[in-house]
Amino acid sequence: MARLLVIGFLICLSAGVWSKRKVRSFPEGFQFGASTAAYQIEGGWYEDGKGLSIWDIATHTVPSPIKDQSTGDVAADSYHLYQRDVEMMNEIGLDFYRFSISWPRVLPNGFSDRVNQAGVDYYNNLINELLKNNITPFVTMYHWDLPQNLQRLGGWTNPLVVDWFVDYARVLFDKFGDRVRSWITINEPKQICFEGYGSDSKAPFLNMTGIAEYLCAKNVLLAHAKVYRLYDEEYRKLQNGTIGISISCTWYEPASDTLDDHQAALDARQFDWGQYAHPIFSRAGDFPTEVKKNVALKSAEQGYRKSRLPELSAAEVALIRGTSDFFGLNTYTSKLTYRDASLEGMYAVPSYNDDMGAVMIKDPSWPQAQSSWLQEVPWGFFKLLVEIKNLYDNPPVLVTENGWSTAGGLLDDDRIGYYRNYLNALLDAVDEGCDVKAYTAWSLMDNFEWKNGYTEKFGLYEVDFNSPDHTRTPRKSAYIYREVIRSRQLDINYEPEDFTAESANSSGETEKNSSSNYYYK
Ligand code: PNW
Q1: Structural domain tally of the chain?
Q2: How confident is the model over 223-243, as pLDDT tens digits?
Q3: Is residue 99 in a domain?
């Protein structure tokens, strides 16, 4: 007994010392990148034969649904400035660049009968420029800019979208697959389905919760899976790449130790991301039990003859299961979760939130970003990585997005604190046996933050949207990230010598947030 106590004490002691170490190394072969998305940076919205997307339509609607009435018509103008973008990646020393292809820039009407050569040229130029600079292109096929033509036919709620997406993917493999070896099919199914079809926070603002997000979920999963199978059957041998999906995951922590709050947090995780991850990554496949059970029960109570969650047939379950070479993880924050009597009447009936039956709240003690939904909770990131390892047999995880928003300014100590603490949590998870292979900062540069327009800045580089050449300037965080990549280490005391206060002051803005103190806890 006494010996056990001593051993336990020694283990705790070494774990404590470990977590306070100030310089930590990343595993051999670990890759670093930064991410963007087509609509958020490209501009060139109506140039050279590009078709319209649901975001072009959304931002040109009167009155505008966008906070600052802005559009992505020009955005960071990367359609014209991609060479400068690659120069920035070189300055930081990125191993890879994650960007997305605009479906209507390549296929103006959404269908594959007409390919827009100018669009193909643009992505060829970008890919070639990256390769010339030794930066690996990591391509997302769909980051939310659906061709409007397809939306007129129901978009992601029409089962035919599965084959339209496969046709589009085939064009991309044919045109770019000789040089692109890393693919993501879909960025964030939950945000596409719930935010776009179940609510009015993303285009196409369908706002038919309880119905539309579930139809969309099934179609997105099938579209992803069929593209994965297509790659396997026709391209993988020749092109020798990897292909997967990026799922956005929030960590839901029980607000208290009650059984109800634990169950609420579990249900929240299953509704938020298990709905998409379980069919692909679990051994059993299919939608998670909690989701199937809750929606079926509520649907029956409400007088629906069938569950509002569409069934996956045995063949569909088999088609979807195992279709990702890696777990693409986008993650930003955590929420406290509870379930009690106050839920009665809180949510619309039917609705996704009512089906889930959980309330999610913020903890006011967690550092707050410019984006209202974003708080810094590095231990939540750690728990999330361990949960993914436990639920899905320790898949290789590529963190495909993680980042922090400010109101602006070059001196971004709060962003630096966030990145350091999240990278530290990532290394804790690696020590715990999680197979994390890459990290991607969101974002390389400031961009159009969807409904929040240009009011939230996520960039390692500041973009001056008012200057004619959309001047890009590195923030202090870009210097910090550069050193992480150069040294393959996280050194919490590193201060860049070439970042001067003068250059920071020239932006004329100060940061309002301070970062937490995870390291010294
Ligand atoms: C991502 N959450 O969305 C998107 O992929 C980007 O396009 C976007 O610019 C970026 O985050 C910042 O908002 C999110 O659940 C998806 O907390 C989910 C969450 C946050 C952001």
Answers
A1: 1
A2: 999 999 999 999 999 999 999
A3: yes
